[in-house]
């Protein structure tokens, strides 16, 4: 019996020694942390965060990200006169122009979303965006006349842009003006994610202007926490917190970018189907999809559709979406069944 007790004590002491040695080994090794940086791109801010045991790659990732985002801007901005997209917009109708694989990818996804949403998303809406004062032509203080709106309707329609992905060429049937502002940021986010993954980084959160993509978890094992803002003017508050371990997130809203005339509020969100700013009570919609590019375009489409049409569309197509609508008492929220999986 005494031998048994001594053996038990010896085993306990051995296990304690192994446990303490293990703790000491963890303390001396490199600890995981969240590293990253912020910057400016596409007329807004961007940020990159990832989990690493050191900051060794920080400078190289910053340099690579700057080059990548500069390239995306040069390909897809309507604010740069000699960008690839601007040169495409300047091309006379009836001609065909070769484009980069990157621009073709975004144009093809835009066409797909346009068809899917029945034109609620339409990247040829640019002339109307400019007419209403929300494009590169500058702001306005007076709503355009109906005759001005009607004169542009013949230029609106994604079907007038002809894509040939095999030949990597684009043609226009008329004076179409392509505006990728509702999809290019999402594409840029996906490219930042690919940049990190190419370096073997699989736990990250990247963002451009509030559009995000996440993968993996933080060092403590928790998923990435993201805030959905309450669509109020003049202040910032959180409506909902969501948790994400994979996927892209995009939010579209009409509560920050608008102008008023004689008490009438004109949103920057233009419905391509009516050629006018939206007038319904949907204030913002957040979409989660596998890629941020798809989430970006779909968030715009659902925002155009409004609280009822948009919600029913999201249900039908199994899109995870969170809607915030204006009411006489404040705001009301609504979400599709799949979105509940991300809510805390």
From TrEMBL:
Residues that coordinate or bind Mg(2+): 182, 296, 300
Enzyme class at the top of the EC tree: transferase
Cofactor comment: Magnesium. Can also use manganese.
Membrane topology term: Lipid-anchor
Domain of life: Bacteria
GO cellular component, one term: plasma membrane
Cofactor: Mg(2+); Mn(2+)
UniProt keywords, alphabetically: Cell inner membrane, Cell membrane, FAD, Flavoprotein, Lipoprotein, Magnesium, Membrane, Metal-binding, Palmitate, Signal, Transferase
Listed transmembrane segments: none
EC number: 2.7.1.180
Entry similarity comment: Belongs to the ApbE family.
Record's function text: Flavin transferase that catalyzes the transfer of the FMN moiety of FAD and its covalent binding to the hydroxyl group of a threonine residue in a target flavoprotein.
Protein name: FAD:protein FMN transferase
């Amino acid at each position: 019996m005494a031998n048994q007790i001594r053996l038990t004590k010896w085993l306990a002491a051995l296990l304690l020694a192994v446990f303490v040695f293990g703790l000491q080994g963890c303390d001396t090794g490199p600890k995981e942390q969240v590293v990253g940086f912020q910057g400016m791109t596409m007329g807004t801010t961007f940020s990159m965060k990832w989990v690493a045991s050191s900051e060794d790659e920080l400078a190289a990732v910053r340099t690579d990200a700057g080059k990548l985002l500069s390239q995306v801007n040069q390909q897809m901005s309507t604010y740069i006169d000699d960008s690839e997209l601007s040169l495409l917009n300047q091309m006379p109708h009836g001609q065909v122009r070769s484009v980069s694989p990157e621009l073709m990818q975004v144009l093809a996804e835009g066409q797909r979303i346009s068809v899917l949403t029945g034109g609620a998303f339409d990247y040829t809406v640019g002339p109307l965006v400019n007419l209403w004062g929300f494009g590169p032509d500058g702001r306005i203080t007076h709503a355009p006349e109906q005759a001005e709106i009607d004169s542009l309707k013949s230029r609106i329609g994604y079907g007038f842009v002809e894509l040939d992905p095999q030949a990597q060429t684009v043609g226009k049937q008329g004076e179409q003006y392509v505006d990728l502002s509702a999809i290019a940021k999402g594409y840029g986010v996906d490219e930042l994610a690919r940049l990190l993954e190419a370096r073997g980084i699989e736990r990250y959160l990247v963002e451009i202007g509030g559009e995000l993509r996440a993968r993996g978890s933080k060092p403590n094992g928790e998923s990435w926490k993201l805030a959905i803002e309450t669509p109020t003017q003049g202040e910032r508050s959180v409506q909902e917190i969501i948790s994400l371990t994979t996927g892209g997130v995009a939010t579209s809203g009409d509560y920050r970018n608008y102008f008023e005339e004689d008490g009438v509020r004109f949103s920057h969100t233009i419905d391509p189907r009516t050629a006018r700013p939206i007038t319904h009570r949907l204030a913002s919609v957040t979409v989660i999809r596998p890629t941020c590019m798809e989430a970006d375009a779909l968030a715009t489409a659902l925002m155009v559709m409004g609280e009822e049409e948009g919600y029913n569309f999201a249900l039908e197509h199994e899109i995870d979406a969170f809607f915030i609508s204006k009411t006489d008492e404040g705001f009301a929220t609504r979400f599709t069944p799949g979105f509940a999986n991300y809510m805390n």
